[in-house]
Structures are given as C-alpha cells and as structure tokens.
From TrEMBL, chains A, B, C, D:
Alphabetized UniProt keyword annotations: Isomerase, Manganese, Metal-binding
GO terms classed as biological process: L-lyxose metabolic process; rhamnose catabolic process
Biological source species: Streptomyces griseoflavus Tu4000
Keyword Manganese in annotation: yes
SUPFAM superfamilies to which the protein is assigned, alphabetical: Xylose isomerase-like
Record-annotated Xylose isomerase-like TIM barrel domain positions: 49-245
InterPro entries: L-rhamnose_isomerase (IPR050337), Rhamnose_iso-rel (IPR013457), Xyl_isomerase-like_sf (IPR036237), Xyl_isomerase-like_TIM-brl (IPR013022)
Protein name in the entry: L-rhamnose isomerase
Pfam families: AP_endonuc_2
C-alpha cells in the first residue's frame, strides 16, 4: 500500500462521535436563541445525527446525555439509531441541573446529595448496559465560588469515594471517562480542574478509568498537545471532547479558532498511537447562533482535515531533523504538512466511500433543513434543560 | 479636622449603587438556582435594596434594568423608592435578550435591528427623564463568534452612528456611560472589547459620554488600576461596575477574589480625584449560590474597607519615597495602609452615622430574610429574563 | 488585470523590514547562546539583511537600533546598505540599558534621567536626518515592579511631556511610532501597556504620531486583528512589529505559533487599506536557538503567505454572506482562502520577480552561511548589549 | 497552651530558606542592573543570608546553586555558614547555562548532552553528601521553541531515564524535588510544564521524589492552593519556591502581588499538615531593581504574616459553616483571619524570640548595608552567570 493509500485508508476508518445535545438549543447565561426545526425528542436528535453521518461517513455514533435523553426504552432508542445508520455512543451524566446540586454533587458536603449523585451515575451505567455503550463520560460541575466555602481536600476525598463506587459497577468492556475543566460554572475551585487531578484519580481507580480532554477546558497558554502526548504515554487518554475557543470554554466549532492547534493535537494522537486505539473522538460544542446541523458537519470536516494533515507529516524526515537538532528543518517538515490543502484529498476519500465530495452542499441539497422546519412544529424544543 | 476625621468624613459620604437585578435570580448557562424570597417585582427589588442601605448607610441608590424593571409609572416607582429611603439610579439598557439580537443590536448588519436597538436606548432616556436618573449605562453584547462572520470595521461604523443618535437625545445633566467587555456572550470579536475602544467612541461623542470600568471585564493580567488612573487623567472615567473574578466575568462579590487589587483601584480613585467627583460606584454581581441581600451588604462593606485603606495611605510619605526612588520604601507605605485592619474604624463610622456597627448581624436580626421567604410566595421570581 | 494578477502584483510590492538586531545574538534572562558567523558590526548586519532581500525580494529595508548600531558616519552606513541593494529603515531608540534607567527613562521620577532619555530620542531624530529614515520607533521599558513604587499618573504626565518635545523635533515626512507592551521588563505597571494608552498619547501629539502593534505584546486572549481594524479606522496604525508567541513576548518567528491569527491580521490590513498605505511592516524577533538568517527568510515568507491568503479572500462573497447574516457561509468564505495552499502562487510570484522560487534552498546553496562562519572570526559578536 | 500561644509557638518554629543567588545580581533579558555591595563569593552570599536570619529568626538555611556556588571545599563552606548561625540547604542544579544545553539537557536529543547533564546532577548529590543537604532541587529549562522541533514523547522518555539514574544515587534521607514551570526559557513546549507531569514522574520514581511548587510557574488563572491541597493529599508536596507575579514568572517578592493568594496557599499548607511536615519553604526571587537584603527580609516577613493569618483561621467555625452549606458564613470565617492585622502578633513573637520586633529597621540600623558597599570593592559580583 502506498503512503497516500495508507493515509486514505486511515481517514476512511475515522469515527467522530456527535453529541445529541448539540442538535438542540444552547446559549449563554444571557440568552438562548431558539432555532427553527430543532429536535424535540431524543429520537429527532438521532435523526439529525444520522444526516451528519450520511453526508460525512465518519460520524457513526451519537453520545447521549442523561436526563436530557431519558427514554422509557433504551433498546428501542438504539434500534431507532440503527435503523438510521448510526449507533448510540457514550452516556453523559448530569449532576448539575437539579436544585440539590447548588453546592456540588458527588463532592457536596451533604452525604444525601452525594448519594443522589452517585445513584444517578449508577443509573447511567444501567443505561449503558441497555444501549450497549462502552463509555460513561463524567463531567462534574462541582466546585466552589468563594475561598473558604468548602474544604478543598475533603471534597477530593468525597470525589474519590463516589468515583470508586461507580467504577465498581462498570461491566466488562465498559469504561469511565473523567473530564476536567478549569472553571465554570464554579468560579473559585473546581474539583477536577486539570488533567493532573483527573489522572491521579483514574490511576487509583484502575484501567477502566481514563481521562478525557475537552479542548476548551484549559487555562490560557496551556499546551494541549503536550497533555495529549503525556496521557497517551501513560496509557490514560480515554478520549476527546472537541470544540474550540478564543477565551474560555466558548464551545465553538472545533478548528474554528486555532486550526494549527487542532493539527498539532492530531499529530500527537497519530504519533502516540491514539488514532488506532480506543481513544474516543467526540464533539462537544454549542451552536448558539449558527445553524446546528451544518455546523456539526463542518466540525466533523475540520477534524478530518486536521487528521489528514497529521497523517501526511513525513515522520521519517521529521525524526531525522529532530535527531540532528535542526530546529528550522524539523519545524519545516511539520509545517509542510500543515500548509498542504487537504481538501482535494478528502474529496477523493469521500468519493471512494461512495459519498458526495462536498458534504455541506449535499446536505443543503437534501432538503432536510427545510423539512425539519416544516415538520417540527409544536412540542418543546430540546435544549440543555430539556 | 484631623486626618482620621477627614477619612471618616469621606467614608460617610460614600455612595455605592446596588443593581436591581442582583436581588433577583441569576446563574450560569448550566443552571439558575432559584432562591426563596426573591423579589417578583421591581418594587420588591427596591424593598430589598432599601434594606442594604438601611444597614450600611452608603447604598442610597438603585440601578434599574430595562426591560427587567419596566413599569407603567416610573414616577410611582421613584416614589416607592423614596418612601423606603433610597433613590433610583442609573438606567441600564438591554439589547441582548430579544430574538432579533442574535447577531447583534446596535452593530447588527440589518438596519432594522439597529433601529430597534437604538429605539430601545432612546426609550431608556425617556425613562431617565421620568425617574430623574443621571446615567444611561450601556453594555452591548454585540460581537461575533466566528472569524469572517461580520465585518469588524463596519460594525464600528454602525456603533458610532447609533451612539451618536442616542447621545444627541441626552438632556442637560444626563450622561452616557459606555461599558467595555473582553468577551461573552460573543466569543470571537466583541464590539466594545476594551477601554481604548470605549474611550475612542466617548471622545468623539463629547463630554457627556464616559467610560465605565467593570472590574471583571478584562483580559488576564490586565492592570485595572492603570486604566482607572488613565481614564481619570483623561477626564473620561464615568463609573465602575464592581464585582470580582478569578477567571473570566465571574461576577463574584467585589473584593472576594483579590482584595488587594480592589484596594489598588480605590487608591487610584482617591489619588486621581475620582472619589469626590461624578464617578459612579456601582455593583454588578451575580449571587448564584449565596444569599443575595447579605452578599450585597458584604460587597458594600468590601468596597468600604478598600476605600478606607486607600484613604489611609500616607500620601506625603509615599510621594517622598517615590521621588527618591526608594522602591521598597514606597511599596511599604502602600502596604502599611493595606495591612491595616480597618474594620474597627468602619464600626466607628457606622456608629457615628447612627447605624449598627455590624451591618450583617443587624440585617440577620431584622427578620427581613424570614419575612420575604414567608411573604413572597407565588408569582414569578425576578431573574435575568424577567 | 485579472484578480489573480492583481494579487500577484500586490505581493510583488510587499515590503517587510528586517531588524538589524535579529542578525545578532539574543537570548533569555537565563542564557544567550552565541552562534557562529554572527555579525560584529552594523555593516555586517546589513550584509546579512541584504541576503534576506536578495532571496525573498520583499525585504528591502533594515531597521537600526541606537546605540547598538551607532556608527561615526551614517551616510556611509546608508551607502553600505545601498551598495548591497537594501536601504536603512526605522530608527529604534534604546532607553533601557543604561544604569540610569533602572527606574525608567522618559517617565523616571528624576528629571535628570528624563532629560538624558529625551536627549537620546532627539539624537535618534538626528540620525534619521542622516540616514533618511522616515520612522522613529519608540518602545519604552518604563514601568514599575511594585505597587506604590511610583505614581502611575505622574509618570503619564512625564511621558506626555517627553513625547511632546521629541514630536516637535520631527522633520517633514518623519513619524513617531509608539509601541505598547503589556509587561516585561516591568512587572507591575508598564507606562505604555496597551493600544489605548499609545493611541491617547498619539492623538494629542498629532498626525505624525502613530501606534505600532507588536503582535507579541498583548494580554492572553486579546483579539489583535480587532485592534488593527480599529487603528486603521482611526487613521492611527503606524506599523507592525511582527513575531509570534505562545505565552508572553516570546519573540518567535512570525506565523510560527498561530498562522491563522497572522492571516486574520493581514486580512484586516488589506480590508482597512493598510496594505497600500504608509503602514510599516517590520519584524521584531529573537532567534535564540535557530539559525538567524534562515529564520528571518522563513519569517518573511510566512508574512508573504498570510498576505497572499488575505488577498485571496473573496470579499464580494464575504460581504454578501455577512450582510445576510449567514454565519457559517461568511466564515467559510474566509476559511476557504486560509485553507488554500499559496506556496505554488508565491513560487510563481518569485519567478516572475526573477528570484529563485525557493528562497531557503537558494540561500543554502549560496554558501553565505559557511562564508560568514569562516570569515567572522575574532571581534565581538553583536547582541542586545553591543 | 491557649490557641494564641499555639499560633505563636508555630510561628517560632517556622523556617524559610533563602537562596544564595537572590543576594547576587539578576535582571531581565533586557538588562541586569548591578547593585553596590553585592557578594562576590558564595561565602559573602552566606554572610548576607546570615543577616536575614539574624533579624528575622526564621531563615536558618541557605540554598546553593551549582555551579554558581561551586567551591573547592564544601565542608569549609558549611562551616562558614555555621559560624554565622545558618546552615546550607537545598542544592540546586543548573543544566541551562552551558552552550551544550541549547536544545535541552536531560531531554536533549543527543545522548552525549544527556550524559553531561545527568553527570552534573550526580555531582550535585556528591555535593549534598558533603554539605549534609537533604534536598536536590531540579528545575529543567528543557523544552522546545517551535512545533516539530523535537518529539514531545521521546523527550519524556529521556527525562524519565535521566531522573531514574539520579534517583538511584540518592542516599538515605536525601530527596529529589522536581519543579515544574509553564514556560520560559522554552516557548513552545516545556518538558515539565505542570504539576501533573512532575507528579507522574515522581510517582514512578518513588517516595524520595517530591514535587516542588514555584508560585510563579503557572498559567493565568491557575488555582495554586488547589494544587497544594492535592499534592499534600497525595503525599507528594516536597516544597515551595516562593515569589510573586502579576504576569508570568516575574519573580517579585512573595506576597507583593497577591497577598490574599499567599494566605490561601498557607491555609492549605496548615490544613493539610504541611506546616509540620517535611515540606520545604524556600524563596526563589529576583530583586532586579530593589535593594536585595531588605527585599529578602521583607519577603520572609510576608511569608510569616500569611502564615500567621492562616494559623488564626477558626477552623472549628469554618468546618461548621462548610458542613452546613453556609457559603457566606464560611467565607467570612476565612476572611476574618485574613483581614486581621497580624503585625502586632509578629512583633510579640519576635520579642519573645529575643529579636528586634522590626527586622527591617534593625537591619538598617546594623550598618551592614553601608559596610558591604564599602568593603566589597573589586572582584566580580555574583549573578546568574557567575
């Protein structure tokens, strides 16, 4: 197989999971701008996600969020997905929208609230059993707003205890993916604020516990690809929540703010063997002002383009330049791949996959956008609180 | 008058404006935690604000937010305030919560939306006429989320045009306070992102246009007291929106995150003559998880303490050390004031003002908290969308 | 002229000024790593700069730094340059390396030190007269390290006074370019920390005073292209000091850290008419660990590539998408230009200019690198202190 | 023992290690301003450090830096210290100032350079054997400036290998303290950039490897006290390098930029048992423009004041408020301690220790400053390169 053929083959196997909630309404604390045609049910979210996969060919799974996607019959939901050509993916828990969680969930000072939070997480594993999902994705909004509000260390103890109970419940082949975030909604301490904290907890829990990197959850200046390389080296990179940001956790389309950074991240994934392992590539974005389905298609394409560039890096030449201390030469090898316009290559890949080479144009022609606006009338649109 | 007497006299004249919306519910994009006893009407907000003034003695005015505080009869609202010992303060506009404002208000590409936004601002001046308010406070959520989304420069042109129309409408003794903010809710460009932009616009508008500094609206590392000193030097500091933050626009209680910074800011105010001029000192905070009225009382006290310390700086000694290039000596003079425990002094000030020396304890004893929980049942609690 | 021909024509007229000091040694506070073949005299720096222009065709001028490039006979220096095909460019002052400047220069509390600093600036204008340089570039290291160390406002007064004296000295056709910087070497206040401060001073000085944007001198998260658009709109953008950074003022090669940002900046330059005006495009970088001449060639090429992409933006399509509020469409128009591989176009441009299409390869083949290592033996290598 | 007596007793046992290099000249990359009276030898640095201990009573040890403090006879150096009432403390390695280290030391692509670096570290352990020092403090300047320059993961492998060899060499009772730093002098990747990386390496090395927290080495917004609490909980906090910063690694006097943060850090130390354990409290500062010995005395006092406030926190009341979810109450308990003026208490403590209550005044009266200016004439002043 030629090198280019190998790159193409790799790109054809790529899988980017889209999140059910990105198809619903979202916004900032100032305003949620509702859009027409937004899904009203988990089933309709899957219908939209299926369109993304139909036109990109690399978005085969859909992440659920409980309780936003709570249904009576998860097997039926899985069937609904399957009928449309997609599968259910990671199950995301929610321990931040109940009034009880004002001061935290699994780290709350009150044992009763902690019990409730852990029970919810256990319920999520039950749902995973029903859906056949591999990954339980845990993001905790837990933290404090004011110095002294709660004891930093005690909260870590509570976190460790709660995680351990959930970990024990995981079945064969199931994983716990622990996400970290610098801040928001907590504004002084966050109980899992950085990769180090997530890593330390996962290490103690065991092999089924892995760290998930949300690309928008770091302090300014953080070198994310370094974290990716380190977690891969430690065997602890469980997956990504992709999005992009100029400021804080802006949740813009991945690749929109700093495409070079996305490329560098994907290069470390490729270099560290993450592309062919169990690392989960997920989107976690908010399309507050732009059309949601096209934005998600575009995001998937952005990940593809960054991946294609990463796969095109001439690693032999790079290694040689690095070994000889040729700073400019090594940088030039990397930049040569980045500067390449990979869109023609991806058009070829799509055609070889039997897809339209232009996913966005194909989606627009499909009439889906008009159809959902016409059909999804009445009911309550999905959103973060739905 | 001794120096201490002068400090006390200054502290007794201090006036911190509290915002009506801080008495209502607020939250993050993830969740608004409702609290018991929260006001349901502008009148009830004024009732709460009156308590803050009653116990602190230095919170005599209340900022309104239109449309959140829209009433039929503003004169009656002013009377309601007056009957409770407070007055109506700045009028804050809102051009970010209507569906039309998805892509901006006064900077929107569509002239019709801009017209609507400017009309709202003009309405706010009408309200100022009715309430006798001096200040129109303008914060624009306008901006873009994606590179290319709109033309940066054209948006500035539109901004200038809209502001000019509103400026013309201002009456004698009325002012326009233009606020800047680095980001949020816009995540790529914000149309008034920094003091320089606000200053440039105000300069062209004229003397009635002034810059307002929200202490939470800067990039990491920004030296806020430098901006304060500069704006005072330029005669362009209109006022403050006080709050504090560890990360972004966290809107925590002022002085809670970095009390030394608040002190440095107040020192520049004192040094630059801002304390005895028309600079408006306002709070703009969100009490998402803590009890609102006590949090506002505490915030007012924090401003008092920082002011007291700033007033206590031995400026003669400071000037001497500065002039002689004594780095450590000059710093020590400033720190000596900061390290002073001014709470005893403020207790004295309050007693001399006929107040309880401990505002929070007095508030707690007053029974107000229990009363509003008992009485404010039913109706819709005030919040950002109310 | 077709559109592509117009783009090519524009690219052929581009001019990027390289700084004499970038050819000398530089480093961090921890270590300056000396390189072989580094110039020992201003003349040798010009010799190197001439190579950069020879191979790129778009680096016709060289910025001087006084006193590092102080010579007896500036006319002879200008002739030296001319003989090698380049010209002398902006004159950069230095008011930070004399022991007298420990607490500042033009803002120093001691009038004698201020006098010395202003005299140095006046001397720089004398040199401009001799070299025929248009621009006096002013960067002040002035500031304080500790709160209270000096009076923020008094320092502004001193700054204004000093600048006014120098401004008066400017001849016909000469300009003063005022640079701002967030921090370093001052670590608490910097006397010209942001574009607003530089702008306010330039506004008062007059038309010959303009702001210079160093791309590495901003707080994290600052939107630089917004500043560029604003300064162009105000007629106050004098020029750029290009470099790139991941953290602070890292002074890496321009385009190395965030090529998308450089493209966005160049787009605003093109959109705002800055590309065909008097805006000066200068490099200001430190090649601490990489070979200097190739790094500078690469930097010039990076600016060219970003400019080419900016010129390729389909502005009609962009304007249409923006006007119609098509967020994704407008973003896609911009990204389409950015994603284009412009290296083939630039190879064509170079060939049409009679240059080798691959400047770095041509430089390597020229033997210059080996020659300077062989010839520049003995003497004292140029560096920041030379 | 009353509570206050316990606080006093704790304060009397406090030990803050001062670094030999802080007594020498330092600066920024722009300029090192030499000061009069600066030590010229390791012995003279110890003489100065002895003054700091003499007047504060809590600075009994002095950190060495190799090769800056290299001597023929370390036993004699230890004796020199002992004769002046102080002891030799941690040994700091230097793998960043040799020309060989341009591309790194222990992580360098070339095995020969790595060998040299490891040999230097082993030499440092030899010196520890001679001086009786407990701690080897390792800070690596290793990293890269450009994407692609070297392989992130391979550098981690080299780091692990080098550390393991040094770890094996440690004797009974000796420790390895691994410091992390976000950036500088490397500007793209740093090989030990965050606590997570340092922690992961220390975990694999064993109990003698511990993390050291330099308070200036974090990304903007990082919650340092959270890291302190976490490392204490993990049993992996080896010590502190204290200093303060407004921007990057400014190396200002500890407590000068954010005294509230220093208090919060010290509170976590107290709460986590770090104050009575083997945690090393060291200064690592640069007194670029201020007098060095008084600055160090002031820094030691700042640590004392923060510690005193931390010890004064009413932990019973705090715990109660935290357990009951009283956000404002818990915060108030913490703030009550912080707002206390502890200078009178510390004056008492000093008097009970037989010291002058005002260390800076006593130092000034001692005539030491004048004496060293008079006596230390000729020779080469100590500095980072000495």
């Amino acid at each position: 197989m030629t090198e280019l053929a190998a790159v193409k083959a790799a790109l054809k196997t790529q899988a980017v999971e889209t999140p059910s909630w990105a198809y619903g309404n979202s916004g900032t604390r100032f305003k949620v701008f509702a859009q027409q045609g937004v899904p009203r049910t988990p089933q309709e979210k899957l219908d939209d996600a299926a369109r993304v996969h139909e036109f990109t060919g690399v978005a085969p799974t859909v992440a659920l969020h409980i309780p936003w996607d709570r249904v009576e019959d998860y097997a039926a939901l899985a069937k609904h997905a399957q009928d449309r050509g997609v599968r259910l993916g990671a199950v995301n828990s929610n321990t931040f929208q109940d009034d009880d969680y004002r001061l935290g969930s699994i780290c709350h000072p009150d044992a009763a609230v902690r019990r409730k939070a852990v029970d919810h997480l256990l319920e999520c594993v039950d749902i995973m059993d029903a859906t056949g999902s591999r990954d339980l994705k845990l993001w905790f909004a837990d933290g404090t707003n004011y110095p002294g509000q709660d004891d930093i260390r005690s909260r870590q103890d509570r976190l460790a205890e709660g995680l351990a109970e959930v970990y024990e419940r995981l079945g064969e082949g199931q994983r716990m993916l622990l996400e970290y975030k610098l801040f928001e909604p907590a504004f002084y301490t966050t109980d899992v604020p950085d990769w180090g904290t997530a890593y330390a907890h996962c290490l103690k829990l065991g092999d089924k516990a892995q760290v998930v990197v949300d690309t928008g959850h770091h302090a300014p200046g953080t070198n994310i690809e370094f974290i990716v390389a380190t977690l891969l080296r430690e065997g602890k990179l469980g997956g990504f929540d992709f999005n992009s940001r100029f400021y804080a956790d802006d949740d813009l389309m991945v690749g929109a703010a700093d495409p070079f950074q996305l490329f560098r991240i994907m290069y470390e994934v490729v270099r560290g063997g993450g592309f062919t392992s169990d690392v989960a590539f997920m989107l976690d974005q908010c399309h507050n002002i732009e059309a949601k389905i096209p934005a998600i298609i575009r995001s998937v394409m952005n990940v593809q383009e960054a991946t294609a560039k990463a796969l095109l890096v001439d690693r032999a030449a790079l290694g040689e330049a690095q070994a000889s201390g040729d700073v400019l030469g090594a940088n030039a090898v990397l930049m040569d791949a980045y500067d390449t316009d990979v869109r023609p290559l991806l058009r070829e890949v799509r055609e070889e996959m039997g897809l339209d080479p232009e996913p966005l144009a194909a989606y627009r022609r499909s009439g889906w956008a008009e159809r959902i606006v016409a059909e999804r009338v009445g009911g309550e649109q999905a959103g973060w609180g739905a």
